[in-house]
Amino acid sequence: MGFWDAITGRSKPKQANLDSLFLVPSASITLQTAAGLTPTGDGSVCYRSATGAGFAQTQAGVEELLRSTPDAPTVETSTDGFGFTWLQVHRPPEETDGLCTDLHAVNTTLEAEGFGPGLLCSLVPFTQPGGRRVGLVYLYKQGTFYPFAPTGPSSRDNLLELQVRDALRDELPIEPELSGWMALWGAPGL
Q1: Does position 170 have pLDDT exceeding 60, yes or no?
Q2: Which of 91, 93, 146, 178 has its CA 20 to 30 A from that of 73?
Q3: Residue 6 — pLDDT band, cuts 50, 70, 90?
Q4: The whole model's pTM is what?
Q5: DSSP assignment, residue 179?
Q6: Can you give the residue range of the structural domain that contains 28?
Q7: 15 part of a folded domain
Q8: What pLDDT shows up at residue 17?
Q9: pLDDT mean over 66-79
Q10: Is 190 a domain residue?
Q11: Treating both helix axes as pointing N-terminal to C-terminal, what angle do 96-110 and 24-35 enclose, rounded to 10 degrees?
Q12: What is the CATH classification number for the domain harbouring 132?
């Protein structure tokens, strides 16, 4: 922070550390032993699409990049009711490493092409044997994770979210402000 920023009370936003996504596979082992949560094999990146041919080409290029590997995942794109685009990646549940590599590639490509300001979050869902789902959400602009456990169209399991936070606090950079734990109603995979 510079002198002028200090005087005016401005601060620079925390930079995303996309390499934190590579911590999710080891965190998934902790979630399995501590809470009985297993990866679903799904993951997604949420962003605000930009208009224009440049963005359309970048998005198509990202999808082609993911589909061009020998063990290519299934890739699809959808738009939610808030106007955000979700690029979804589907892999077998045991391929959490590959899934996180895919999500990292999507984020870094959009960032490198100048569309970083439109990135919102990445989501990796987990499930319990009874079918309850919890998503590990990586906030792009904060560089932190938080759990989101929906129980219905507009309700969530706060106790389960806190249990997941406590289980992972030594493994992942956790969003400290509970007010920053956004509800992702209708997110793919949840």
Answers
A1: yes
A2: 146
A3: low
A4: 0.88
A5: G
A6: 23-180
A7: no
A8: 76
A9: 91
A10: no
A11: 130
A12: 3.30.70
